[in-house]
Backbone:
């Protein structure tokens, strides 16, 4: 099952949070803009991980939820003139509603069909936004305001304050999703991803869990969309395009699917690389594609997977050394359970 | 709205359907053989158009481009398959699909590097440049050629799949890969061959489409979604499904834009959503 | 074919490979829909119910091929099954698997099936026999009224097989147990009633003693076995 307070997971999450807060204080304006973008992508990637990493619903249309959140917030504030305090929850609810509909529509679709269905639903949103005059079509919509939090002593037009807020929201989302995944519901989602047949044989109908997960994921992705709209004070139909969804999936996979903190790490790494690479070439997409191929090629565990492997390896080394020096650490062994006896000859050596 | 207007729309729909058919047939057979969906299929379509454009510039002949580009693209596909996709056999279908998503991003950039960002003009061959008068209707000759080419491809593919030993092997493998394998069919080789052949067909479609839509790096990304819809609506792995899906998507899209301009572009997705809900297997799945 | 199983019965289904034993299980458990005929559970018609509904009615099964949650620990596997039994899957904010009654149940199951030693080991790393025991534990965790075991001892050592037999014998008397098994010694030791299938038909239905003596059984089953 998913353990939120796993030492490695917590270490990585804390490192990301501290680095983010520190950077928001000490970085320059451009750096803070990048940081805010990282936070937005981290939230979007974590919400995707809730689907792709646990019940194994690998969505290629996640941009739909992000785009709906961003557009709902912008339309409500700019076109309808509602205050951000109303528009914000409305936009998150719109993301959840879209999640509910997509969840219901795809509940029968499996692996490849699920990918295709989500791809198509996202693209449907794209075409709809591009063709609609009221939403600004290809040009998008400008003017989404940042809320006025001066009552709390926060000035969100200040880039340092805004970046700090976004990093904090990302941390909060991490904790909320983590708690959710460590619950009975989270256990069931993970089980559905691993073996749906057994889940059904145990008398659990997977459908409602998938729909619930998609709804929650849509809400969090909608939140990411709202923050994206506030951040750039502009929304574009690109959010809906399937290549945007593909990028979000790439971040999730590069960071480590199914680890929650990994996708946040992947989002930060990919956004940072994008700016680093774009400084000397305009062909960032080439690197993004190659990173994905490489990540998949090397087992698809992503950055977090490498950290886990490192931890296992160092534990083995410590173990071996401990036994060598002290004749075996009994307490340690009891915790890890007895080591299985392996036959002396590897299968390949037989005969 | 006159009869001629509707006839023109009909021919437009038919021409788009034929283009989609040539594109989707390779994708659907590969899909049927190994449950493998090649998201980079559109990339090979774009690559075909670009290679065709270069061949046209070098040789000055449209026909050289039409024949040459698919061959070049098939060779590139074979290389990619051997270097990348075959080595990921054990990683599972999802990993392979994701790797082809990586190829989409790489492909666009490589084409931008070689051919630049701007749309390239690709003129139809002189013999087909004019218009033809047909039952009092004036219609571009090149578009009629596209329809004819699609029909020829359809007949040849039908003969290949239904009347040859190779076709029988493909159908057996799509139906039940394990059984076909036990009967001595080398499913992996068949898959490799069909993958390259499908990419060659995509490239052919790219060259054919070039004079109509011009050539630009994002063209493959744009065409992928309608092609996938054809495959899902038609049912995976079957020639009949590819034909039915192409016609449905081609006609629904073309007439949707004429009859429901305010919903233009959305109707196709509604068709897909409906199919997924009512017939998740598609109209003519190869496997029951 | 027609088959009637009464509460508390200990029934073994045997027959040559391809006789339709697993298909019968799949029909009873709702994984397959019959093209004709009726399935009744406790007198109520359940033909159109799926696997989920049948499991909720108290039908629980193990699979011929291990069907486990390979990437988590034995404890997490059992936890899910126990939570399913208690209807505690829709808990969003806490982990109900830490509640004392759940942990107690998990540990009791583990003890009964000899899994106590490996509770916190990932399932994918376990020996085959141990995984097989977990397969049965998952079916038992639902505390079913009818327990259906599909070749539970396939690939197990004689000692492990004996342990499974003891376990099945020790189950509460009111629990109905239906067993598919190839090990005839086990069948004759366990069952009160033996049903022999061949080509999807019941060719014998009676006590183990009668089965042993039956020429029909001898011909179609033993003939192919020995």
Residues:
């Amino acid at each position: 099952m998913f353990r939120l307070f796993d030492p490695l997971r917590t270490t990585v999450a804390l490192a990301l949070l501290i680095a983010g807060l520190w950077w928001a204080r000490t970085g320059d304006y451009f750096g803070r803009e990048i940081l805010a973008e990282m936070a937005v992508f981290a939230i979007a990637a974590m919400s995707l991980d809730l689907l792709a990493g646990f019940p194994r619903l690998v969505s290629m249309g996640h941009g739909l939820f992000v785009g709906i959140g961003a557009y709902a917030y912008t339309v409500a504030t700019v076109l309808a003139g509602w205050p951000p305090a109303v528009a914000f929850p409305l936009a998150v609810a719109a993301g959840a509603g879209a999640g509910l509909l997509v969840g219901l529509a795809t509940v029968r679709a499996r692996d490849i069909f699920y990918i295709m269905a989500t791809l198509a639903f996202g693209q449907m949103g794209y075409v709809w936004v591009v063709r609609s005059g009221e939403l600004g079509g290809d040009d998008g919509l400008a003017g989404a305001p940042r809320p006025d939090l001066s009552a709390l002593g926060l000035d969100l037009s200040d880039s340092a304050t805004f970046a700090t807020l976004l990093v904090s929201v990302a941390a909060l989302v991490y904790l909320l999703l983590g708690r959710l995944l460590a619950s009975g519901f989270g256990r069931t989602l993970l089980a559905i991803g691993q073996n749906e047949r057994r889940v059904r044989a145990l008398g659990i109908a997977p459908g409602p869990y998938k729909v619930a997960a998609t709804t929650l994921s849509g809400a969090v992705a909608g939140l990411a969309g709202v923050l994206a709209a506030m951040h750039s004070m502009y929304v574009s139909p690109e959010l809906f395009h399937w290549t945007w969804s593909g990028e979000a999936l790439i971040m999730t996979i590069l960071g480590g699917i199914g680890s929650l903190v990994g996708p946040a790490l992947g989002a930060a790494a990919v956004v940072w690389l994008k700016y680093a690479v774009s400084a000397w070439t305009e062909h960032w997409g080439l690197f993004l594609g190659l990173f994905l191929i490489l990540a998949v090629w090397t087992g698809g565990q992503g950055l977090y997977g490498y950290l886990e492997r490192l931890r296992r390896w160092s534990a083995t080394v410590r173990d071996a050394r401990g036994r060598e020096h002290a004749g075996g650490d009994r307490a340690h062994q009891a915790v890890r359970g007895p080591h299985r006896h392996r036959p002396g000859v590897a299968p390949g050596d037989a005969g | 709205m006159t009869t001629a207007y509707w006839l023109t729309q009909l021919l437009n729909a038919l021409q788009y359907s034929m283009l989609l058919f040539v594109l989707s047939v390779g994708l659907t057979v590969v899909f049927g053989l190994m449950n493998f969906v090649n998201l980079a299929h559109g990339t090979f379509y774009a690559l075909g158009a670009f290679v065709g454009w270069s061949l046209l510039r070098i040789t000055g002949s449209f026909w050289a481009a039409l024949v040459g580009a698919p061959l070049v693209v098939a060779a590139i596909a074979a290389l990619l398959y051997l270097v990348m996709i075959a080595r990921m056999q054990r990683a599972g279908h999802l990993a392979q699909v994701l790797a082809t998503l990586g190829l989409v991003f790489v492909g666009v950039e490589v084409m931008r590097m070689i051919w630049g960002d701007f749309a390239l003009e690709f003129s139809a061959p002189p013999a087909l440049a004019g218009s033809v008068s047909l039952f009092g209707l004036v219609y571009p000759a090149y578009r009629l050629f596209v329809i004819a080419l699609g029909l020829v491809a359809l007949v040849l593919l039908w003969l290949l799949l239904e009347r040859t030993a190779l076709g029988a092997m493909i159908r057996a493998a799509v139906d039940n890969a394990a059984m076909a394998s036990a009967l001595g069919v080398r499913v992996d080789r068949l898959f490799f061959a069909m993958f390259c052949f499908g990419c060659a067909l995509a490239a052919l479609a790219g060259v054919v489409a070039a004079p109509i839509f011009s050539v630009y790096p994002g063209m493959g990304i744009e065409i992928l979604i309608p092609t996938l819809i054809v495959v899902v609506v038609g049912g995976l792995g079957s020639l009949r499904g590819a034909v039915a899906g192409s016609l449905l998507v081609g006609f629904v899209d073309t007439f949707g834009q004429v009859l429901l301009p305010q919903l233009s572009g959305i109707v196709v997705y509604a068709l897909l959503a409906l199919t997924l809900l009512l017939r998740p297997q598609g109209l003519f799945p190869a496997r029951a | 074919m027609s088959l009637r199983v009464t509460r508390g019965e200990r029934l073994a289904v045997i027959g040559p490979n391809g006789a339709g034993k697993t298909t019968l299980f799949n029909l009873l458990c709702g994984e397959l829909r019959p093209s004709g005929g009726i399935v009744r559970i406790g007198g109520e018609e359940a033909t159109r119910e799926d696997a989920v509904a049948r499991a909720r009615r108290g039908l629980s099964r193990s699979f011929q091929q291990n069907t486990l949650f390979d990437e988590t620990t034995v404890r997490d596997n059992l936890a899910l099954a126990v939570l399913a039994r208690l209807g505690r899957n829709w808990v969003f904010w806490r982990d109900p698997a830490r509640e004392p009654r759940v942990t107690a149940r998990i540990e009791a199951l583990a003890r009964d099936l000899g899994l106590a030693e490996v509770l916190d080991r990932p399932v994918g790393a376990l020996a085959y026999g141990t995984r097989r025991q977990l397969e049965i534990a998952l079916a038992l965790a639902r505390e079913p009224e009818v327990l259906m075991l599909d070749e539970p001892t396939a690939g197990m050592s004689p000692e492990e097989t004996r342990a499974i037999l003891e376990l099945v014998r020790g189950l509460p008397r009111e629990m109905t147990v239906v067993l598919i098994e190839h090990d005839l010694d086990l069948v004759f030791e366990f069952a009160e009633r033996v049903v022999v299938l061949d080509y999807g038909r019941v060719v014998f239905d009676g006590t183990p003693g009668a089965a042993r003596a039956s020429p029909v059984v001898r011909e179609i089953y033993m003939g192919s076995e020995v």
Q: What stands out?
A: Residues 328-351 of chain A have pLDDT under 50 and may be disordered. The CA atoms of residues 107 and 207 of chain A lie 6 Å apart.
